[in-house]
Design goal:
By secondary structure, this protein is of the alpha/beta class. It has a single domain (about 55-285), classed as 3-Layer(aba) Sandwich (Rossmann fold), CATH 3.40.50. Helices cover about 50% and strands about 10% of the residues. The chain is built from 14 helices and ten strands. The strands form three sheets. A six-stranded mixed sheet has the order 5-4-3-6-8-7, with helices on both faces. The longest helix has 19 residues, at about 140-160. The structure holds iron/sulfur cluster (SF4) and zinc ion. Zinc ion binds near residues 292, 293, 295 and 302.
Length: about 325
């Protein structure tokens, strides 16, 4: 994709007898398209993914986890454009300018869509942002951040009646994390690696409608359609490992076009069912209600309530 050095004509226009220059050539699909037909192609691909995996119906309310980056912003935009009832939810992580700029982009897109996003600030909710929490807990910023995000998405989804939470994971994310988890035989993760995770244990259904689209295609769509997003990467991220596997996948893709797609979708079709059949053994088992906040937790008191207690900021009312 992208490298459109040779002048190519849009293949859809050409089939209708119109000569219009293509703005993109996707070599994995051997497809050259103009702006209008790329936009249509992209939206159709999202729509087909939603239907193929039975992610949600038009009648359901969807909560989109938006970070201000291109993937989640595009997801929020495209779901609304396709006629779904999708609302944005942003967590201000307290990571300085990065969080402020991300929040501005979310608000900007909200204005464009005529939808007010839900916004929660960790400093107000928990008592500290990610930098301080990392010092307090001592594990990686991303593992703390991931747990806090999950907790708040579930909480907001439950409180406001959303049965579905959608995230902007794309084909590059999914194929590279699949590779990393296979290399490390992370069976707990492999047993749950699917674009739809059903509603269970108090968690809403989790869906990933962009899994058939690459990072490049998403960025291109966002730019063509004037979707606001931040290009900044999180300064707290311990993402070296993830980038390493993304580079490997890109190297394989350059060597053999279409590998990312084949690798991931063959897994979903043929291998995932085998791991999923062993889900009970491979995952952490049943969750229970946190006795302080009522959210699902593997232990009596959930991670977030423990954090609040450490910070002396537990404002939740005890349930029992
Ligand atoms: Fe959170 Fe890590 Fe993502 Fe930063 S990179 S937003 S710390 S998960
Ligand atoms: Zn709790």
């Amino acid at each position: 994709m992208g490298g459109n050095r040779r002048r190519r004509l849009c293949q859809v226009c050409k089939s209708k007898g119109i000569r219009r220059e293509a703005v993109v050539y996707m070599k994995e699909h051997r497809l050259a398209l103009c702006k209008e037909h790329f936009t249509q192609w992209f939206e159709k691909r999202v729509s087909e993914t939603v239907k193929e995996f039975q992610m949600f119906k038009k009648s359901e309310k969807i909560l989109v986890a938006v970070s201000g980056g291109k993937d989640s912003q595009t997801l929020w935009y495209v779901l609304n454009k396709l006629g779904y009832n999708a609302d944005g939810f942003f967590i201000h992580l307290g990571i300085g300018d990065y969080s402020d700029e991300s929040m501005e982009k979310v608000k900007e897109l909200g204005k464009k869509l005529g939808k007010e996003p839900f916004i929660v600030g960790l400093e107000e909710e928990v008592g500290a942002g990610i930098p301080l929490l990392q010092k307090l807990v001592g594990s990686t910023a991303c593992s703390i951040c991931g747990r806090l995000k999950r907790h708040h998405f579930n909480k907001v989804a439950r409180r406001f009646g959303y049965k579905v939470v959608a995230t902007g994971h794309n084909l590059d994310d999914e194929s590279s994390s699949l590779l990393a988890n296979l290399v490390n035989w992370n069976t707990k993760y492999l047993a749950k690696k699917y674009p739809v995770l059903p509603e269970e244990n108090g968690f809403p259904r989790k869906v990933k409608p962009l899994v058939k689209l690459t990072e490049e295609q998403i960025k291109f769509y966002a730019d063509l359609n004037g979707i606001p997003y931040t290009s900044r990467t999180c300064p707290m991220g311990d993402t070296a490992n993830l980038h390493f596997y993304k580079e490997i996948m890109n190297t394989i893709e350059n060597h053999s076009v279409g590998t990312k797609y084949r690798f991931y979708f063959f897994y979903l079709k043929k291998v995932f069912p085998l791991f999923n059949a062993l889900k009970e053994e491979l995952t952490e088992g049943t969750l229970r209600e946190c006795k302080v906040c009522g959210e699902p937790s593997p232990s009596e008191v959930c991670f977030v309530c423990k954090l609040k207690m450490k910070l002396g900021n537990n404002s939740e009312n005890a349930k029992s």
